Predict the 3D structure of the following.
Amino acid sequence: MIALCENYAAPREKRALLLEYAAVTKSKRDWWQTPEFRLAIPPSFKAYLGLEATAESLNNYKAEFVPGLLQTEGYVWTIHERSHERLPSDEIDRIVAVRMTRQEALHRVEAPLQFAAIINEAVLYRQVGGPDVMRAQVQHLCEMAMQPGVRIQVVPFKAGAHAGVNGSFMLLRFEDAQPIVYLENLGGASVMLKPKSVDQYERAFTDLQILALGERDSLGMMKEAIKEH
C-alpha cells in the first residue's frame, strides 16, 4: 500500500486514510465489516468480499474496464465520479480506499490470491480520466503483469466474436468448496452456484485464454498502448 501511495503521489490526507485501512486488513481478515469501511460497502458486495478473501484463485474477464484488482486510484476515482449515481467526493474517497485495500489480496505473505485477468483490447484505449490517468493505469498493468501469481492477457479486436461477448464475469475457486461465478451489472450483482452454470463459465474462460494473446504478446500490446495516451 505504501508503494501504491508513492507511485501515484497520493495527497498526505488520502495516504493516511489508505494506510489506516491497510492496517485493518492485516489485523482483521473480515476488514469490510469494520466501521472504517461499513459506509462505503453495500451489503451485497460485503458478501462478495467474504468470498474473495477466502478464494484460492480468481479468473476475471473484463470487457469494458480494467479489473478492479488492477485499477489505479485515478482510474477508480474517474469511474465513480462519472457514474450515473453522481456520488459526492467523500463517498468516492471511501470507494477508492476499498478498491485499493482489496488489492492487498495479491500481496499477501501467506497464500496470495492467484489472479488471471483477460481484458478486451478496448480496455487499453478507452480514455478513462484522460491521457495522464490512462498512461499511469496501463503502466500499472504492465508492472502487475510481471508479478508472481498475476497473469494478464488481452483479447485483440482481430479475434472477432468470442466467449466473452455476453459480458464480464468472475470465477472464484476455493480450496475446500465448489467454485462459483460472480456477475455484476447496473441492476446489481448475482452469484451462480449450480455446477452446470459454473462449468459453462469455466469453459468460456478457457476458450478466452486460448483465443487471447499470450502473456508476452499481451505485455507488448500494453506497452504499445501507453504510447497512444
Remarks:
- The chain is about 50% helix and 15% strand.
- Residues 1-8, 16-28 have pLDDT under 50 and may be disordered.
- The two ends are 26 Å apart (CA to CA).
